[in-house]
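Case study 2.
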Amino acid sequence: MENIISKDSLMCVALALKDIDRYTPIEQLPTGYRHIIKEVFEYEDIIIKKTNYAKNRNMDHYLFENEIYWLERLHGCGFSPELMDSFKIDEDIYILMRKIQGDNLYSVFNEHKTWNTSDFRNKLREKFNGTLEFLKRESLIHKDLRPQNIIVNREVSVFGVVDYQFCSKAGEGLKVVGLRQWLHYRKAIKGVGGEWRKPDISEFDFDTDRYMLYLIIEQLSSLESN
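Prediction:
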């Protein structure tokens, strides 16, 4: 039977992790913190993501609220992380989600180059097509489908997409309240996707996601041929 995790248990973990970096895989935590997690959850496949109010003074809270919103609504889609809980302690927002058991696709360009076969790319292309079809059917644009945000294994039997901070309905921006937050958003959105984004494609265009995914396949094909 799956372990039932109470809200109080999650709060205890978050309190124990208040001074840890905002995005912390469990295996990278100090031993003492890992022990706390194991005592509460009985497994170590949780990702904890938190704001840093002391540094950012609420400036990026809207991104975390947006991610929570979409993780809730994408539950069961087959490629988003399972949202376990979210809450606020003091001025910080915490997101707890189940870790997708694989490696980010960026690793295929580095330590997992042997994965990069035509069979791997064909399977990956199928997953990409299915993801794009789902997003378009739901009128969603992820906006940040760079390799670092795509989780796979060698057989591509595991496939996941993470980081929904900038996700939105097509033609809509994020709900941002306050001038400082708005200025932060306008600056941040320009860098979303990094080198994988085509600058002349609007952030509200479905082709934003399509271009990134097909560029990944193109780059992987080029890497193998070299």
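The two ends are 49 Å apart (CA to CA).
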